[in-house]
Structures are given as C-alpha cells and as structure tokens.
Amino acid sequence: MRSAASRKNHLRGREDGYAKGWLDGWRLGICGGIDATVRQETFPPSRARILYVPQGFEAIDQGVIAALRSETSEVRVSPATEMRLQAEQFRPDAVLVMNGLHVFPPDHLEQIDAIRAMGIPAMIWFVDDPYVTDLTVKIAPHYDYVFTHERSCLPLYRSCGCMQVHHLPLASHPDYFKPMAVPPEYRTDICFIGMAFWNRVELFDAIAPFLQGKKVLIGGKLWERMTNYSLVSHFVNDGWIEVPETAKYYNGAKIVINLHRTTEAGKDNLNGINWQAESINPRTFEMAACASLQLTDVRQELPEYYAIGSEIAVFRDANDLVKQLEHYLSRDEERQWVAARGYRRTRRDHTFNNRIRRLLQSAGLV
Asked: Would you say residue 97 has pLDDT above 70?
C-alpha cells in the first residue's frame, strides 16, 4: 500500500495534470475561436511578377515567399549567386532582396547594378538594422527601393542619397508560429531562445538566482559568457534551435522572455555610428503568434503594435522582470488572457501578406 505521503503526492500530481490539461485546452480553444472570427481585408493580387532573393532566415523567407505567392501573379525564388542570370531569364517586374548580408556573394552589388541596367527595379528589405550599419549604408545606394524594419534608420538611408526609403516591420509566418499542443519535454515555466549578446548576459546573470527551482529553457550560443553560468548551465540548450523546435518551446512555456540586443558599436555589432533603435524584433510577432505570454523589454515603437498590459507584458530592468515573472507565474488565467489577446492582434494586423501588400504599394506595383 502507498504511504500517506505517497498518496498525497499522487493526488497532487493528478491535480496538477488536470490543471495543465484544462489550461492547454482553454488556450487552444480560444485560439481556434479567434481563427474563426478574425477577418482580414482581402485585395485582388497584384499583376506584378517578382524575383525573390532570400537571405537564409527560414521563418522570414518562407513567410515572404508565401505572401508573394498570394499577393502577386508570379514569384520565382533565386539564390543570391544567380540573381542576375535569373533576372535575365525571368524578366520580372522587380527584384526583392532580403537583407543582402552575411551569405551574399562578393559580386552582390555588381549583380544588382546589372539588373537595374536591364530596366528592372531592385528592392531590398533590411531586417538587421541598426546592428550592421557599417555595411548597409554601402549597400543601400545600389537599390531603387530601400525597406527597413527599423524606423529610426529612415533618415540614415536618405542621407546616403536613397530616394525611396520606407519603414516595413516584420511579421510572423503562421505555418511555423501558431498555437499547438506539445509534448511534456517542451514545457517550461520560463523560456528564452537567442544569442547571448552582452546585454542579455547581464540580464540573466542578474536573474540567475531567481531561476533556481523553476523549469527553465535558455537556448542559443555563447551563454558561457555569463558570470553565473554555473547556476543556469543545466537550463542551457547550447547551439542553434531549429525554427519548428523554437515554435514548440514557445508553445510549451508559461512565459517567454524577449530581450532586444543592444545597439552599441563593439557589442557584437557592426554599428560604428552607434545608430539607435526604436523598432521591435521579429521574435515579438513570433512569440505572440504562438499565443504565449511574452515578457519583453520596451522599444519605443512597441505600443503601436501591441497594447501593453492587455496584449503583451513588459519589463524595465532585471528587478522588474523578476516581479513580472512572479506575478504571471502565479496567475494562470490572467497570463493566458493577455497571450490570447496578443495572438488575436497578431492574426489581425501582423501578417506577411499585410507587409508585402504595403511593399508592393510603395513600389507602385499594385
């Protein structure tokens, strides 16, 4: 026979399991209701034919490609090494390049100049601003249209002589980031996935004692930089986490932390002019699209996309983060209502179809 303590633990386990199951069912049910009721305004697709050149950011590239297929008459995807050849053969109405950094070939700009010489407009969408301005200010003048997810960079590119510069925020790809049921191995109290930039190291060093005794996942590279690494090493999934796995971890977490990287030159950045940031990162949309409670630091632009306290939760510093974590970990229904409202806002306003339609309008392709 079981001891009294064993029976008590067994009953507590059943109660905890029931509570988790009820909360999961409630979350997925309310999200299903949101999916059924949210309606986006639809428009006839543009007659434009677009050649798209991806960067290699899977979640972004696939979201853009899916939106282009929906919003244009034809899209062809070309590797950066072949974009001039593909443009010659396809003769698109425009070429759209994603980011143009890191993996692009040495003759990238020569190819773009050649494409423009064919009379084909070239567009670029920068999504690493302002962290690599040492490079982007040299790239931007080679394009007819410059789009950037970072609103503060508009005057920077105009000062480089670019005539058509537009702010275009990122979004979430619903084929990847969506509410889903996940196995127990993805369930945590607190989750953070991202590179250990120095400001993130400082934050997690400060909250490391609070994390003890909780179920935590910290994913990404360079976390051994932490002074308190020994306190969190058992939480760390070292290395790159694939996009589908990331979405599962977001779904399994009670709270997902979002912390934008610092912009200062020399802090893992190529931003020698110390250009500041005010726009939000793509993780903001991706976490919200999983109907997970997101605790994020504050960027100036954030209230334009999510209602703080109603659709998203924020923190100001490490001490405030601990207070917010304590608050939401102890209030299941409040936490899930905020996450559900954030999900509804994302489904309604922050899709790649919405962004691509704006891009096409700005380039006169609709």
From this structure: yes
Does residue 294 sit in helix, strand or coil?
Answer: strand
Give CA–CA dist 146/124, Å, rounded: 5
Which stretches of 253-331 are DSSP H helices? 282-289, 318-329
Look at residues 171, 117, 126 and name the one whose alpha carbon lies nearest to residue 146: 126
237 forms beta bridges with 219
Q: How far apart are CA 313 and CA 343, in angstroms?
A: 13
CA distance 37 to 27: 16
Query: In angstroms, rounded to a whole number, what is the distance separating the alpha carbons of residues 135 and 120?
Result: 24
Question: Among residues 89, 125, 82, which one has the least CA distance to residue 107?
Answer: 82
Element (H, E) at 314: strand 313-314
What tens digit of pLDDT does each residue of 108-142 get?
999 999 999 999 999 999 999 999 999 999 999 99
Exposure of 343 in the CB half-sphere (CA atoms within 13 A): 29
Picking from 289, 338, 336, the residue whose alpha carbon sits closest to that of residue 314 is 338
Q: Can you spell out the DSSP letters for 160-228? A: TT-S-EEE----B-TTTS------GGG-EEEEEES---HHHHHHHHHHHHHHTTS-EEEEES-GGG-TT
Question: If phi over 0 gives left and psi between -120 and 50 gives alpha, with beta otherwise, what is residue 66?
Answer: alpha
Q: Is 248 in a helix, a strand, or coil?
A: helix
User: In the prediction, which pLDDT does 313 show?
Assistant: 98
SS3 content of the chain, % helix, strand, coil (to 5): 50, 15, 35
Coil, helix or strand at residue 72? coil
Full-model pTM = 0.92
